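Summary for the steering committee. One of the milestones for this cycle was to obtain a three-dimensional model of the protein with calcium ion bound, which we needed before selecting residues for the alanine scan. The sequence and ligand used are listed below.
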Amino acid sequence: MRLLVVEDDLALGNVIRRGLAEEGHAVDLVGTVAQAEEALFVDDHDLLVLDLGLPDGDGAELCRRLRAEGSQLKVLMLTARDDLSDKVGGLDAGADDYLTKPFAFPELAARVRALLRRPADTRSPVMEAAGIRLDPAAHTVWAGQIAVPLTPKEFSLLHYLMAHTGDVVSRSILLEHVWDANYDGLSNVVDVHVANLRRKLELPGSDGVIETVRGVGYRFNP
Ligand code: CA
């Protein structure tokens, strides 16, 4: 998933970015409200980790504006403040969850996982199609009766494709949601990871689960 971290404490921001990237997410880090607005305008994010006190404004104010514009973006608010009125204010501004600094990274990671598996609709958070079962909470993938060990990027790639089952997803969309804006490695990184996924998920009768749509991208077929 593509995450945006808005945190003006650069050291903390980098810890959060690295930790969430290790969980397989594509993570962008910015330090001001203005940069956050620009990043949200340019890219389509799945979750926002938002500090409350920012040099050019208030995270709660940004959150309120996003909700006023109809944004469904999941928001986890971070703050050093620990009084009840700030928590209530943050949640009233439209945040989905709230975490007070200092926090242990595993708690942040667990809350991010919980928010990401909270479905936009009422579907089960466990995805199952074409003999493949992906559990975002447990971070496990099963092909039939066989547990398939995947790297975080492979998992994230499969998660994104399965979340868009039946849709053709372009390489650039996959790069955007599974890698990040500054990715400058191999241009065929998506194809390499898809090839690895296909190899690992190989099952009798599962050919074509991840279909190549020539010139466009990939489609996970139900
Ligand atoms: Ca701050």
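Key point for the committee: The radius of gyration is 18 Å.
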